[in-house]
TrEMBL record:
Pfam families in the cross-refs: Hist_deacetyl
Segment forming the signal sequence: none
Alphabetically ordered keywords of this record: Hydrolase, Metal-binding, Zinc
Domain Histone deacetylase: 28-343
Protein name, as recorded: Acetylpolyamine amidohydrolase
Cofactor(s), by name: Zn(2+)
Gene3D superfamilies given in the database record: Histone deacetylase domain
UniProt organism field: Rubrivivax gelatinosus (Rhodocyclus gelatinosus)
InterPro entries assigned: HDACs, His_deacetylse_dom, His_deacetylse_dom_sf, Ureohydrolase_dom_sf
């Protein structure tokens, strides 16, 4: 398999996220990806490459242009408010909920930060845009690498920050640019007639679901902690099945906190059966390993060895596959768990 690494990822390094009235250290840290790279050095699975720049038109096929323009210059605007802000992260604290105007872009920076976000857990830092854009470039390059004769069966985008919570015009859940959606859109644009996006992160992929909710050419599926108790709460329920032309092309498989691999794997079998019926030309896997039993913010009970089977089950779909990297916060186990999925896929 081909692996695309993001050379800019470490520039995105948040200090603190809001949790229960306190600012606590960020869970989504650069060391996560360094552990994956270290494990890939121990267990090589393929050539590791850098990606060429991502086309703006591809980003704009996924995200609103005004959102991308905001993200590009948000850090500079934040520091312009007060030079002392350079030592702080930008964290939103005000949002336009039901009944407010979301069509207007406020002049006030804090108001724009809130307009384009949905939580106070996702700090925007000096290197956030560069990291997110370079991560999307990895996702696009991974998708494009699967075309043509002699193409590999699978390509991996080592994306950081993650992407699956980001929607057309909002960031949140540690995500800014939806890398899995960029990969799916790139696959469509290079000729795949139908693409499935399977999200195995502990948290529902609300951004990916919302981006494709009214489309029949991209089937979205997510296996995740039940949003009645788990983040992101407001989306990811079983009765969300798509709308308009996309009706029937979204499948949510929420599972209770405490779910072990045997029960998780049964949900995966349901998802894979739906994918087989859809008969896509390619698959995108939004690969979070926060389903791990040791994850500090999640409550499934997958063991490190289970990820080998998970990868093998996904390989059983028999499809050209792009992996994007999503969550996983047991930092020291991150390399083992991610590389186990990829090794299981290859076996
Ligand atoms: C990509 C991804 O996995 N995003 C997850 C975002 C979760 N944000 C909410 C985290 C709540 C933190 N709870 C801390 C519990 C400490 N015991
Ligand atoms: Zn997650």
């Amino acid at each position: 398999m081909l692996i695309y690494a993001n050379p800019r990822h470490a520039g995105h390094s948040g200090r603190q996220e809001m949790y229960r009235g306190r600012l606590v250290p960020c869970h989504e840290v650069p060391a996560r990806l360094e552990h994956v790279l270290a494990e890939l050095a121990r267990r090589p699975l393929g050539e590791i490459r850098e990606a060429p720049p991502v086309a703006r038109a591809l980003l704009e096929a996924v995200h609103a242009p005004r959102y991308l323009r905001f993200l590009e210059t948000a850090w500079q605007q934040w520091v312009a408010l007060d030079p002392a802000n350079a030592a702080l992260d930008a964290l939103p604290s005000v949002w336009p909920v039901r009944g407010f105007r979301a069509d207007l872009e406020p002049a006030n920076f804090a108001a724009r930060l809130g307009l384009y976000s949905f939580d106070a857990g996702t700090p925007l830092t000096e290197g956030t845009w560069a990291a997110a854009e370079a991560g999307a470039a990895c996702a696009a390059a991974a998708a494009f690498s699967l075309a043509g004769s002699g193409a590999p069966r699978a390509a991996v985008a080592l994306t950081r920050p993650p992407g699956h919570h980001a929607g057309a015009d909002f960031f949140g859940g540690y995500c800014f640019v939806n890398n899995a959606a960029v990969a799916a859109q790139a696959l469509r644009e290079q000729g795949a007639r139908r693409v499935a996006v399977l999200d195995v992160d502990y948290h529902h992929g609300n951004g990916t679901q919302s981006l494709f909710y009214e489309r029949a050419d991209v089937l979205t599926l997510s296996i995740h902690g039940d949003p009645r108790t788990e983040y992101p709460f407001y989306l990811g329920h079983a009765d969300e099945t798509g709308a308009g032309a996309g009706l029937g092309f979204n499948l949510n498989l929420p599972l209770p906190a405490g779910t072990d691999f045997a029960h998780w794997r049964a949900a995966l079998a349901t998802a894979l059966a739906r994918i087989a019926a859809f008969a896509p030309d390619a698959l995108v896997v939004a690969l979070g390993v926060d389903t791990y039993e040791g994850d500090p913010i999640s409550r499934f009970r997958l063991a490190s060895g289970d990820y080998l089977q998970l990868g093998a089950d996904i390989a059983g779909a028999g499809l050209p596959t792009v992996f994007t990297l999503e969550g996983g916060y047991a930092v020291a186990a991150m390399g083992t768990n991610v590389v186990n999925v990829l090794e299981g896929f290859e076996a």
